[in-house]
Design goal:
Largest sheet of chain A: 9 strands, mixed
CATH topology of one domain in chain B: Histone, subunit A
Number of strands of chain B: 2
Strand content of chain B: 5-15%
Structural class of chain A: alpha+beta
Distance between the termini of chain A: 72 Å
Radius of gyration of chain A: 30 Å
Helix content of chain B: 25-40%
Structural class of chain B: mainly alpha
Helix content of chain A: 25-40%
Order of helices and strands of chain B: HHHEE
CATH architecture of one domain in chain B: Orthogonal Bundle
Number of helices of chain A: 14
Oligomer: heterodimer
Largest interface: A-B, 55 and 37 residues
Strand order of the largest sheet of chain A: 4-8-9-12-3-13-14-15-16
Bound molecules: zinc ion
Strand order of the largest sheet of chain B: 1-2
Shape of chain A: elongated
Chain lengths: ~475, ~100
């Protein structure tokens, strides 16, 4: 086996070397650098009460097949779709949370293709004037750009069984938000973190169940690998990669892996694909542009090629749906209604409560847990019984040292109980101090020579002698008093 | 004068595929002629001076037509009604030849 190195791009930092193993049989000439180029398409089903263009229920889960349809979502001739105002508003919220520019004018287009899950022969979607564009999400100092956030209708559901494909249109017309990133990722770890952060944001916005298992959030990475020729100056190449990877031409192909419903599977699919592409590129060939499916059983991907042609969707404005316009007031009201988002909450928890960064991050992954933590803190305002109480509360929540089933008030009590200074038996303490001082003459000497830090060693010894049943502050005070004499 | 447009055989085949139509050799030839003529006819519009006309994608001048979110059952189809026009159905599903 031979190891090929690729540089992993970090906008603001050092570079990681990622290794890929290539069969020794593959012939290499020079030492090439390979850099994965990955973009994402994410579909999120909104949890509105009704569908996108009709008033059938958007909750289709576990309903009998084709029991949740009407002329509009079944695509009957002459039925008139009318947009759901809330769905449009929630799409804007997602756009804003991803730092996008919100459109003041928007409209719906028809995207034409034939597939059994699409009753009209077209999907109502957005092409030229999406609701939000040009956003980004920052993660650990890296910026991943969001190209667009648009609104469309979900399709029906297909079940492949024997010689048949069965179609259930209960889901047809449920509002579906599509989020498209720029191909700014070069490794599967960043992709996974990005998706987890996006998932958390969507949950905070309370606009979707974002339930991966039910398919209300579906993930599609598109993957290719860029070959950086050794002839190029690696310095300048690195620089150009660092900020604007648009400046480099994209690889002449990309592979889309469709409809994955787990962050881990996305990571595995990317790792599998990158390795597969490297093997092909090493032979001097170019991988085929195609759509593939993820195979859970062995974490591989499989071609779904049905003779891949360039798509010709013949988008045009849907003449049934008048254009949408949004006043500055409407837009600022929408923006104003956003909750504090996870990244901001993490920062606030660090700054305001002095939490460790990792703990603040973990506490804010679930809005409910973060809220519980803050509720606890309001109950102990001004309390000085326990030092650094916010961090201790955070620890207790994260380590599950105290059950969260308690109400916040009981929870706080238990935590205070757990961490409050121990009652100290002064007689025992006096005896312990004397004994420790007698046994540690050299430490006492050092202390008297001015090496005052030695006292912490002595505190430790006394605490041990007391079997932990003492308040370290009192121990220190006692020791200091005796040493001064 | 209208321009002369001639669609190629490949273009007709492509369009047929997009429209999910199976055309015979004869039909391909026929549409190559007829569709070209249709395009010629529409190309007549190019003679109009539209330089002062704002582009639009709709004709009603309506805008911002929405409904307030909320599920209603008044147009809901029963399973039987929903699948009534289906060529093939199975257990209340629409059934087509397996596609994957
Ligand atoms: Zn409907």
């Amino acid at each position: 086996m031979k190891i090929i190195k690729t540089i992993s791009r970090h906008p603001h930092g050092s570079e990681d070397l990622v290794s890929f193993q290539i069969p020794a049989s593959a012939g290499t000439t020079n030492f090439m650098k390979y850099i994965p180029v990955i973009g994402l398409e994410i579909h999120v089903e909104l949890k509105t009460a009704s569908k996108m263009f009709c008033q059938c229920s958007a909750d289709y889960f576990a309903k009998p097949p084709n029991s949740n349809t009407c002329p509009v979502c079944l695509g009957m001739p002459g039925a008139l779709p009318v947009p759901n105002e809330t769905a449009v508003n929630w799409t804007m919220k997602i756009g804003k949370a991803l730092n996008c520019q919100l459109a003041s004018l928007s409209k719906f287009d028809r995207k034409h293709y034939f597939y059994p899950d699409l009753p009209k022969g077209y999907q109502i979607s957005q092409y030229v004037e999406p609701i939000a564009v040009n956003g980004y999400l920052k993660l650990k100092g890296k910026k991943f750009r969001v190209q667009r956030v648009h609104l469309e209708e979900d399709t029906g559901k297909l079940i492949h069984s024997g010689k048949d494909t069965l179609v259930d249109f209960n889901r047809s017309g449920v509002p579906l938000v599509e989020i498209v990133t720029e191909p700014d990722f070069d490794n599967s770890n960043d992709v996974k973190e990005f998706l987890q952060e996006l998932h958390t944001i969507i949950k905070y916005l309370d606009v979707s169940d974002a339930d991966m298992e039910k398919g209300s959030m579906r993930l599609e990475p598109n993957i290719s690998v860029r070959v950086c020729h050794p002839g190029l100056d690696p310095g300048s190449q690195k620089d150009s990669l660092v900020h604007e990877n648009d400046k480099l031409p994209l690889p002449p192909y990309k592979v889309e892996v469709k409809n994955i419903n787990s962050f881990n599977f996305v990571k595995k699919a990317i790792d599998y694909e990158v390795k597969r592409h490297l093997e092909i590129l090493e032979k001097g060939e170019t991988p085929i542009q195609e759509t593939r499916g993820f195979v859970e059983a062995d974490s591989s991907t499989k071609s779904q090629r049905s003779k891949e042609e360039t798509h010709d969707y013949r988008y045009f404005p849907d003449p049934d749906i008048p254009p949408l316009s949004f006043s500055a007031d409407y837009l600022s009201a929408t923006v104003g209604s956003l909750p504090e988002l996870p990244a901001a909450k993490t920062n606030r928890f660090i700054k305001k409560f002095g939490l460790k960064e990792a703990d603040a991050f973990l506490l804010t992954r679930d809005k409910e847990v973060a809220g519980y933590f803050e509720k606890c803190l309001t109950l102990v305002k001004g309390s000085r019984i326990v030092e650094d109480l916010p961090q201790k509360l955070a620890n207790a929540i994260l380590n599950k040292r105290v059950t969260l089933n308690l109400g916040p008030d009981k929870f706080v009590q238990s935590v205070v109980e757990l961490y409050k200074p121990k009652a100290t038996d002064m007689e025992k303490l006096d005896a312990a101090v004397k004994s420790v001082l007698a046994k540690n003459q050299s430490a006492v000497e050092e202390y008297k020579k001015g090496k005052e830090r030695v006292i912490m060693f002595l505190v430790g010894q006394v605490m041990r002698e007391m079997k932990g049943q003492a308040d370290p502050l009192k121990v220190k005070k006692e020791l200091a008093g005796k040493l001064k004499r | 004068m209208a321009k002369r447009i001639t669609l190629t055989r490949d273009e007709i085949i492509h369009l047929a595929k997009l429209a999910d139509l199976n055309l015979t050799e004869e039909e391909i030839k026929k549409y190559q002629q007829e569709l070209s003529q249709t395009l010629d006819y529409i190309a007549n519009l190019d003679e109009l001076d539209t330089s002062a006309v704002e582009p639009t994608s709709q004709t009603t001048n309506d805008k911002d037509v929405f409904f307030q979110d909320g599920a209603k059952n008044d147009r809901l189809f029963s399973q039987e009604k929903a699948t009534a026009n289906a060529k093939n159905k199975k257990n209340n599903y629409f059934a087509v030849n397996r596609i994957l």
